[in-house]
Amino acid sequence: MTTVDQRLSELGLKLPEAPQPVANYVPFLISGDQLFISGQVAKDATGRVLTGKLGAGVSIEDGQEAARQSALSLLAQAKAALGDLERVVQVLRLTGFVASTPEFVDHPKIINGASDLLVAVLGDAGRHTRSAVGVSSLPLGTCVEIDAILKIR
């Protein structure tokens, strides 16, 4: 059976360092068999925040890439919390926030970047319920922020 780390490698992906909080909160919290991961903003491989708004200069493709980067940060937080991503039983819930203009209506297409990555890396355990919400702004000017709830062993 292929491990999560092997799948990441096969996909040419590398987890970033688990980001530290930028305010008064914890990056993750375990309660029973659930792992709650705080919102992860979109950052590229160098740690630069991916900024802008969908519908005002940020393309669908760039928004999807931002969502993928946020999902990689979610996985990095999960690994920091659990020590091993093999402990993830199921991604239960994903909430994606997309900074956009009032006219932009393709929020689900953007968050698909994260959803597709989680399924590619975790297989069926990456399938989840979710919301994709448009907002006027996000912390640090990022274009995407995603949080998650995972069932763990």
TrEMBL record:
Taxon lineage: Bacteria, Pseudomonadati, Pseudomonadota, Alphaproteobacteria, Hyphomicrobiales
Transmembrane segments: none
Protein's organism: Hyphomicrobium facile
Pfam families according to UniProt: YjgF_endoribonc (PF14588)
Name by which UniProt lists this protein: Enamine deaminase RidA, house cleaning of reactive enamine intermediates, YjgF/YER057c/UK114 family
Residue ranges occupied by any Endoribonuclease L-PSP/chorismate mutase-like domain in the UniProt entry: 6-141
